[in-house]
Specification:
24% helix, binds guanosine-5'-monophosphate, 22% strand, alpha+beta
């Protein structure tokens, strides 16, 4: 995962528009937004996909969701609503091999997705 783009963002080797950072997670704007608000929330721990989570990561996953709620409230779109998406592996459409949660908001989102 050394060369993974998100690892480089965590290490501040490449820039990103960061909206939240703490010791466990980083959240930043997606470079190619699919909605007016499109934020990626990622664990700093090197996990390739949702399939790499173990029972040890339960607190981390809870922290990620609470962080998403905090971002939604502080950025003012919690009331209107939002969507959280995790693409897992090839059939899930995952392109970047570092676990990430897409946080989409700012317009009515269609269902079902792709
Ligand atoms: P995936 O398809 O893996 O679920 O989503 C990867 C996401 O990362 C895509 O929405 C893509 O636009 C975003 N992305 C890829 N490279 C970069 C980058 O260098 N910076 C930022 N901020 N987002 C990126």
């Amino acid at each position: 995962m050394e060369n993974c783009i998100f690892t480089k963002i965590i290490r501040k080797e490449i820039p990103a528009k960061i909206v939240h950072e703490d010791d466990q997670v980083l959240a930043f704007h997606d470079i190619k937004p699919q909605a007016p608000i499109h934020i990626l929330v990622i664990p700093k721990k090197e996990l390739v996909s949702l399939e790499d989570l173990t029972s040890e990561d339960q607190m981390l996953v809870g922290h990620i969701y609470m962080t998403i709620q905090k971002i939604a409230r502080s950025m003012g779109f919690a009331e209107a609503g939002y969507r959280v998406v995790v693409n897992c592996r090839d059939d899930g459409g995952q392109e970047v091999p570092h676990l990430h949660f897409h946080l989409l908001a700012g317009r009515g989102l269609k269902w079902p997705p792709g």
